Amino acid sequence: MKNREGCEIEARNINYTVQIQPTSPPFKIWSTKDDEPTPKRFADDDVDEERAHPCARRVLKGVNCRARPRELLAVVGPSGAGKSTLLEILAGRLAPSLGSEILVDRRPIDRPAFRRSSGFVAQRDTLFPLLTVRETLTFSAELRLRLPPSELRARVDALVRELGLSGVACARVGDGHRVRGISGGERRRVSIGVEAIHDPRVLVLDEPTSGLDSASALQIVDLLKSMAEARGRTVVLSIHQPGFRIVKLFNAVLLLADGAVVHHGTVDELHSRISSAGLVLPPHVNPVEFAMDSIEILRLQQPAKDRCTLQQLFKTVEPDPPTHTYPYCDYANSRVRETVILARRFAKNVYRTHELFACRTVQMLVAGLILGSIFRNLAYDPSGARERREILARETSCGSYRVSSYSIANALVFLPFLLVVAILFAGPLYWLVGLRRTPASFAYFVLLIWLILYTANSVVVCFSALVPNFIVGNSVISGVMGAFFLFSGYFISKDGIPSYWVFMHYASLFKYPFEAFLVNEFSDIGRCMEHALGVCVMNGVDLLKEEGLGEKDRWRNVVIMVLTEGAEESLG
């Protein structure tokens, strides 16, 4: 595999502001002098910003930095210093405030193209736990590379060896909780491999050692160091508390505090900075850790105007820009091939989720038998029914595939599974209740159950994508489903709904399958619903006419259900 030289990334005057909700003071009938707020003191650079935006918080304040090929730049600082925000900006995931500038090889960044030619490893591992290590890397390679199968397998094998995962290549990834698999350090290396499989020129990692023991953390940083030197990559990582041996692997350190740069340079330069501040570095304490504990002293060491650091050098020294640019990478596969690859990955996950398949099967079969036994031979009476998303966001943000391919693949895999579930549910229920005994009616009944199951799945996916957390999502889904059921026409007919709520009747997801069930069952003109003096005074068609329904609604409602599912999949 031919190595590509990494990119030089330069950040100039990076600012990033987030809006915060103003907090209201507690209500008091009277106030005393002690209750008066103490004026907050700001640095001179922050006064104008705070006055102009009283409900804004500056996460990054005029940050300048540079990351070079074949080097490992470590971004360090206490919690809340802005490390993760800066990394997301450097990786092209976030856009900085106006006036900020990101240069790649001294040219303005093209964020979509840069995301595809670089790699970003988030702090949390977002992997399919039921896939093996080799399968995870293979699917990532298939989605991001245009290579023949033999070359692709060779690329995966080489990366497995480079990551030191040969011994666990056939083991499941696991998640550390429900699914047993590889260790946390090995799982982190898999996450790095997923982002390194396409040989990115830049690799950005948000706290890759978080949650790992010291030995595993050292292995991860040593791996990244070797990737930077051997592959010519530019590697930028954030780290909270680096150990002594880890610090020795850093080529440069960017020390942040309260969103501003305290130091940018080598570890030796940081050591000199500590000494010039009159501080003594204790034995067996690394300079980075000591500097983080002494940030306030370092910030006040000397006036900013007298400092001559890399921050000023970036502004005064501007070499001529190189003639080459980083490549723009389009999608590696056609839409059809993307769909096939994603469908294979979905199928492997579904096949290995034996518990889910068994529970769904037993659940629907038992439910159908119970409902069928309760309403057995019923007489006719007119009065008388958070891992995939994160993976999708990560993979689509870096251009691995199109969202539409994901939706189509999801449907291709789950629709057959849901069809089996629908048949198991509908079979005993339909014939025990004694509904219309024709093959066509039964097939249509199964079709409706099938669409209802897929609609329910789509609704959950849609609301999971739109709401911030499980509690809110559960509340919203319960409320919306309750409203849809109320206005479906089962409890209150359309004529009984106030005019200003009629729109909810048409928006209800239950309206269309409910009406379709009625049409399927009562469209037989030969079935009498009510007798008087031995004469049939109401048949099934008459009942449907009273409800404003007819044969025309049979397939119209099916089309509406399919279109609704498509819209929900798009939103999700």
From TrEMBL:
Domain ABC transporter stretches: 42-283
Transmembrane regions listed in the UniProt entry: 411-433, 445-466, 472-492
GO molecular function: ABC-type transporter activity; ATP binding; ATP hydrolysis activity
UniProt key word Zinc: no
Compartments in which it is found: Membrane
GO cellular component, one term: membrane
InterPro entries per the UniProt record, alphabetical: AAA+_ATPase, ABC2_TM, ABC_transporter-like_ATP-bd, ABC_transporter-like_CS, ABCG_dom, ABCG_transporters, P-loop_NTPase
Entry superkingdom: Eukaryota
Basic and acidic residues: bias regions: 31-44
Topology in membrane: Multi-pass membrane protein
A Pfam family hit: ABC2_membrane_7
Region (Disordered): 25-46
Main location: membrane
Keywords (A to Z) from UniProt: ATP-binding, Membrane, Nucleotide-binding, Transmembrane, Transmembrane helix, Transport
Identification of the protein by name: ABC transporter G family member 5
Source organism phylogeny: Eukaryota, Viridiplantae, Streptophyta, Embryophyta, Tracheophyta
